[in-house]
Amino acid sequence: MSVQRSLCNNALAEAPQPQRALPHIHSHRGITDLRSYQMHSSAGRRYIRQHRSIQCLIQRQERVNAFLVHADHVAFFLHRGRFLTMMQMAMQSTAGQTAPLVPALTNAACLWGVRFANAEAVRAYEPMYLARAVQALKGPLTDMSANAIVQTIQADVLLANYQFAMGRLVEGQHYCNVAAALALSCRLYNIRTIQARPRAGSFHAMDFDLPAPGDAVEEGERIRAFWHVYMLDQMWSYACKTPPRFDPSTGPPIDTPWPMEADDYASGRFPPNIRGSRTVEEFIGGNPQNDRGGASRPALYAKAATLVGRSTMLAKHWSSATDAEQFAADFVTLDALIDEFMHALAPVATAPDAPTASKLLLVHTLACVASNQLHKHFRQGDAPIANKDYTAAISVTTALDALNPAQVGFVNPIFAILWTSVSRALIAEMVRLRGAWASASIQVTVSAGDELQMFENEHSRVVAALAKITAVMKALSRGCPLMGQWPLMID
């Protein structure tokens, strides 16, 4: 029996049967008929209240189900089976009982559920759920259980992505920073650390000493919580041009092993003897020794986000580096790592279904944007470095052929930023081609004619690539308004 049917049947069994008709009051019948009317009226009101309660339960279940369809695109990291069980318990709990899910998470899930709905009448509930989730997050954290804190991190992550998707980047960064602060305070970067003692550092203003996880699922949720917060921080710091909280020079060393799928922890595929040490630094250094679990989809996602963060950081110092030799060495190492990472990825076209294709496309796009970031200042240099950002941009648009917006419906909001970055690289190449075409057109030679044809062909390719990105973003803008803002971001 489904959760929805179970809730409905339980509530109906407890509800009184409706009366055929309520008696009319006649003044000559006296107090007896008045009491009878009051009794029937009370029963009727109870029935109406319980009927409304049933409808609310059904609606909430529908919204949670709608949320879970696209939950992976908005950084949902909890175990689905356990989340659904706790959600059912929360909906069946009575006043005075401690709910198994924090209200902020319940309302954030429903918020996304109505956002994913195609009906405008349902989306009208978004302000209500947003206000409830925001209000619920204002409570104190000091008396929360470990599970409640992890759930609160999840609520912050969901709200961050919601605000980003709606085009409210400042509000999105606020919730992203709150989630990062909680992850730091709980030392989620130190899970399964090989270090005997936690490293000292002023990375957080408060401490939450979480007890040991109750089982493998809880430990997996904590690991996944950290990495989803880390990825959010890396990607949206790049998008908003702000320093990341998990900065390699000022942030904590990350020892937590790479994340796996939530079901992998439940099924025992996370070995108990795994220990971590400088997980990100070992990856950047090209050391595979500390790469257990590093081939999972969440791990590839985390690695791709890391590449974006590192390439952005390195590109910022390309003209101000005090040690030119060290900068060149770091550049070559990171460039080679990005190439190796991209070549090892499965083609997006090999994905078995549309949701899987969109997730794999995100990893490809992040890696391409990392290459784009690394090479964008060298467009006027010598080949092959000069055109590498353009080559990466074309790779992204080619991979878009495997994405059908009508089948996907919604993608991670960061795509709006990534595709905008790709569009900038394409526009820069268009400007270069037009300049080269103008130079070649003044030469009256056979070779100049061949060059003109080559420039025209390549220009047409760039125009087609831009048109493809524009069409995809327009198709997805209804669910993610940020997609509709991309011309403004390019300007």
TrEMBL record:
Where the record annotates domain Xylanolytic transcriptional activator regulatory, the positions are: 75-247
Please indicate if the UniProt record lists Electron transport as a keyword: no
Location(s) in or outside the cell: Nucleus
Give the Gene Ontology MF terms in alphabetical order: DNA binding; DNA-binding transcription factor activity, RNA polymerase II-specific; zinc ion binding
What the entry lists under Pfam families is as follows: Fungal_trans
The residue range of the signal peptide is none
Superkingdom, natural source? Eukaryota
The record's Gene Ontology cellular component field reads: nucleus
The alphabetized UniProt keywords are:
Metal-binding, Nucleus, Transcription, Transcription regulation
Quote the CDD domains the UniProt record gives: fungal_TF_MHR
Query: Which Gene Ontology BP annotations are present?
Result: DNA-templated transcription
What is the name of the protein in this document? Answer: Xylanolytic transcriptional activator regulatory domain-containing protein
Q: Which organism is it from?
A: Fomitopsis schrenkii (Brown rot fungus)
Q: What is the lineage of its organism?
A: Eukaryota, Fungi, Dikarya, Basidiomycota, Agaricomycotina
